[in-house]
Amino acid sequence: MSRQIGEVILDLKKVSLSFGGVKALTDISFDVREHEIRAIIGPNGAGKSSMLNVINGVYRPQEGEIILRGQRFARMNPYKAAKAGISRTFQNIALFKGMNVIDNLMTGRNLKIRTNLIQQAFWWGPARREELAHRAKVEEVIDFLEIQHIRKTPVGRLPYGLQKRVDLGRALAMEPSILLLDEPMAGMNVEEKQDMCRFILDVNDQFGTTIVLIEHDMAVVMDISDRVVVLDYGRKIGDGDPDEVRANPEVISAYLGASH
Amino acid sequence: MREMASSQARDTFPRLLLQHAQVRGDKPAMREKDLGIWQSWTWHDVAEEVRAIACGLAEMGFIRGENLAIVGENRPRMYMMMTAVQCLGGVPLPLYQDAVASEMLFVLLDAEVRFVFVEDQEQVDKVLEIQAELPQLEHLLYDDPRGMRHYTLPFIHDIRELMAMGRIHNRNHPDLLASEVAAGAADDVSVMLYTSGTTGSPKGVRLTHHAFISAARGGADFDGLTADEDILSYLPMAWVGDHLFSFAQAMVTGFTINCPESAETVMTDLREIGPTYYFAPPRVFENLLTQVMIRMEDASVVKQKMFHFFMAVARRSGAEILDGQPVSLGDRLLYALGNIFVFGPLKNVLGMSRIRVAYTAGAAIGPDLFRFYRSIGINLKQLYGQTETCAYVCLQPDGQIKFDSVGKPAPGVEVKIADNGEILVKGPMLLKEYYKRPDATAEAIDADGYFMTGDAGLFDEDGHLKIIDRAKDVGKLANGAMYAPNYIENKLKFFQYIKEAVVFGDRREMVCAFINIDIGAVGNWAERRGIAYSGYTDLAAKPEVYGLIQDCIEQVNGELVGEGALADSQIHRFLILHKELDPDDDELTRTRKVRRGFVAEKYAPLIDALYGGRSSQFIETAVKFEDGRQGKVAADLVIGDPRTFAIDRRAA
Fold first, then answer.
1. What is the pLDDT, as a whole number, of residue A172?
2. Interface predicted TM-score (ipTM) of this complex, two decimals
3. What CATH number should be reported for the domain holding residue B491?
C-alpha cells in the first residue's frame, strides 16, 4: 500500500455528553490520523452513534473539545463540520426517497454551489456551467460506485443494499476529507458487505479520505481498520490496532463474557 | 497509409478499416457511454488508435501468426485490439469475460498465449491467479486503470502506455504498419473462437478473413444493410454472433457499433441508441417480454384493457401486415390506431422504435414469443449457424417468415441433409481448421468439403430448413419411439414460468423432467397470490408452484400427443430443482446450454427417484458463489405426476 498515514487530523479531548440524567458519553478521548481507517465498535447503546453525532456537530457535548486540523471547536455544528470537509452517512439511510439517484447525489454538492436561486431558476450562464461541472463530479461518483444502471431510479424503489451505496455516494459527492460512516454494512448480505468493504477501501486508497466508521461485524472491522476504539456504556474501554483490541480482556468481556 | 488502402482489395479487416477511414473518416464508427454521456470515435479516430496499438504491440515483440487473448466486456478498445492484432498478422482470441480463472487456463495454455489484453482489475486478478501455470505468458495489458495503482509487476501494462510507445514507434518506422497490412492475405486466420465444449474440452475454431467477410457481406446484402445502421454491441465478444454482427458486418458495411455503459444498463442504453439493426438470443427477447407482461399486470385497468384489445388486433393481423399480405381494411385501421396507442409506445420502451431488421439465433424461439414481436411490427427473423460457419448458414427472407423454420440457405451457402438427418453445409464461410486438432478437423469436414453441423433437420415443401435437435441427442425410448430431448425442453421453456428444463428418456420406458422455474415470473405470480417465499429454493418447493408447473407440463403433453411420432415422449414425472442451473457449477455452458450428461451424473439420485416411483427425494448440492467460495444447498424435493394422454395408435 502506498497510502501513508499522516498526522493527527481530528482530536477529541475528554468529551462527555448526557441527555438529562443519561450519560451517553463519559470522558472520551481519542484521535484520528490523516488517511487512516478508524473504527468505533461497541455493543448496542455503547454511544457509538452519539460519538459520530458529536464529531459532526449534531450533538453538542457538555464537556470536552474537538480539535480539527489544529483548530479548536468548543461548539461544533453540522454546517461548520460540512464546511471543514466532514461528511457522513446514516444508520437509517437519509436520502430523499422520491428523488432519483442523480438528484440525491447533487444534494451532496449543495455546499459548493455558488450561484443564487434566481440564476439557477433561469439556468443561464454561470449557473448552467456550474451545474454541468457539479453533474460531472456526480457522474464520477456514480462511475466509482458502479451504480450507472440506477442513475434515474427513485431511491425509494431501490433495494436496501443499493440505497446504502447511494447514501455513501451522497457523502462522497461532497469530496470530503473525513468521511463518517454509521454502520455502512448493517442489514446487508455477505456479497453486499464485500462490495461495500471494497468501496470503503477504494475511497480511502484512491482519494486518501480519512474514514471513521461504526460497524458491528467484527470480521469486517478487524479486516479493514487501521485502529479501533471500543466503547461500552459510554466509556472507552480499548484503543489500538485490531490485534491489540482483540487481545484486550475488557473488550472480550464486554462482547462475550458479561451478561448485558 | 492512405495511399495504399485504395490500391489493394478490401479482403482483410485491416484493409477494410483503412478504407473506411478514407471514405467516411469523420463518420462515427464506435460509441460508448462514459460518465453518462455517449462518446464517439470516428473511423479516422479508430484507424489512428488501431495504428498506435499495433505499433505498440510490434515494439513489444508481437510476431506474425501468434495468438492474443482478449477478455472483457464490449468496449471500443477491445474491438480496436482485434483489428490491431490482425494488422500484424496475428490472431485475436476473445474469451468469455465471465469465465472463472480455471476455465481460462485451458484456452490460454492451448493457444500458447504470450499477450493477454483484459478489460479491468477483475480480469487482471483472474490472470494473476493462474499466472504460475502459464509459463509462456509475457505481457498482460489492461484497459481500465481503476484500482490498478498498486499492481507493480513488470509485465503488467496500461494500454495507454502501449499506445504511447506505439506512437513513438510509428514516428520512427512510418512504413512498418503499411507493409504489415500489405503482407496479410485473405485466407489468413482472422480470429480464433473457442467452442463452448458441450462435450469434451473446448476446441479453437480458426476462421479466415475471407470466411468472415463473405459471411458478413452475404448477410448485409441479403438485408440491405447500409453504413447508416446503428447496432448495440452487448453480447459476449467471444461469441461468434457478436463477432459477425458487431465486428465483421460493421467492418464490411461501415455502420456504427454502440457499447453499453455496463452490463446492467443495457436496457437504458438500448432505448437511448434506438438501434436499427439488432441481434439477440431468444432469452433476451423472452426477458423483455416477461418484463413487459409483469408491468402490464400492475398497470391500471384502462391501460390493461387497451393493451389486451390492441394485442388481439395485432395477433390477428400484425404479422400479416408486416409480411405485406392482404388484410381487411377494418383491421388495418384498428392496427394503425393500436400503433398510436400501444405498439408505438411499447416499441419505444423496448428501444425498438427504429429497428429495420432484428435477428435471433442460438436456441429455439417460442412461437408465441416470435409472433408477439412480429405482430407489433418488429421485423424479427431467425437465422441458423455455428461458430464453425461464422454463424451464417440459413436466414429467413423478408416476407417469408415461418415460426418453426430457420429460413432458406443464405447466399453462397450450400445445405444438404445426410441420410441420418444431419445437416451438412458448404461455402466460403467454413472454418479453416480446429487449432492443433487435425483429427477433429478431418472428422468435421467430409471428403466433399461439407461441414457436419451435428444438428438434425429437414427441408419443408418451400425449401425452408427446420431444425429438430442435435443429431447425437436424438434417441429412442425403450419401446423404440423417437425421442428428441431438446424439442421437448424447448416446448417447456416457451412457458414464461419455466426458465430451464432437462428431460430424460433415452432408452427408458418413459420421459421425466427436471424444471428450473423463472424466479422473476413465478415470483411475481406468487406475490400476486400472497404466497410468501424467502428465495429460489423456498419458492421452488411451494405446492402452489408445483401446481403451476404441472399445468404447463400437462399442456405440453397435450401438444405432444398430437404429434404422431413424439406422442410417446409425454412427460410422466417431474421435479423442480432446488437450485438454478449455473455455468459456475458447470451445469450450463457459458452460452447457457444444458450439459445434459453432467447434470444427469450430478443429480443421479434424483433420476433414480423419478424412475424408482418415489414421491420425494433428499438432495444436497455444492454450489460456487460468484466470488469463488463454496457453499451447500439442500432440499427435500417433491416429485410431481402430471396427467398424460392416451395415445390413439391408429392415428400414429
1. 95
2. 0.77
3. 3.30.300.30
**In-domain check, residue B224:** yes
The per-residue pLDDT of chain A, averaged, comes to 89
Range of the structural domain that residue B108 is part of: 2-279
Q: What is the least distance, in Å, from the CA of A137 to any CA of chain B?
A: 9
Q: How far is CA B172 from CA B38, B161, B168, B334, in A?
A: 35, 17, 6, 68
- What CATH number did the domain enclosing B31 receive? 3.40.50.12780
Cβ of B36 within 8 Å of Cβ of A146? The answer is no
Pair A23, A76 in one domain: yes
What's residue A145's pLDDT?
93
Best residue in A145, A149, A192, A195 for a mutation probing chain B (most B CBs within 10 Å): A149
Write out chain A residues lying below 8 Å of B36, CB-based: 135, 139, 142, 148, 151
CA distance A108 to chain B (A): 18
Q: Print the domain residue range for A202.
A: 1-85+177-260
Q: How far apart are CA B387 and CA B48, in angstroms?
A: 30
| Residue of B321, B333, B455 whose CA lies nearest to B386 | B455
- Identify whether residues A71 and A181 lie together within a single domain: yes
Q: Hey, how many other C-beta atoms are within 10 angstroms of the C-beta on B538?
A: 13
pLDDT, tens digit, 9 for 90 and up, residues B163-199: 999 999 999 999 999 999 999 999 999 999 998 765 6
Do A167 and A56 share a structural domain?
no
- Whether A164 and A232 map to the same domain: the answer is no
pLDDT value at residue B199: 61
Q: Which of A158, A175, A192 is the last residue of a domain?
A: A175
> pLDDT tens-digit profile of A119-171?
888 877 888 888 899 999 999 999 999 999 999 999 999 998 899 999 999 99
pTM given for the model: 0.80
A146 touches chain B (CB under 8 A): yes
Residues A110 and A239 in one domain: no
Domain stop point among B219, B245, B279: B279
Q: Where are the alpha helices (DSSP H) in B423-531?
A: 438-444, 485-493, 519-528
Burial of B597 (0-12, 13-18, 19+ CB in 10 A): exposed
Let me know if residue B617 belongs to a domain. Answer: yes
Per-residue pLDDT, B461: 79
Low-confidence ranges of chain B (pLDDT < 50): 1-7, 651-652
My answer on whether A156 and A167 are in the same domain is yes
Residue where one domain finishes, among candidates A123, A154, A175: A175
Give the C-alpha separation, A83 to A80, whole Å: 5
CA-nearest residue to A102 within chain B is B36
Q: Indicate if the pLDDT at residue A260 is higher than 50.
A: no
C-alpha cell at B643: 396427467
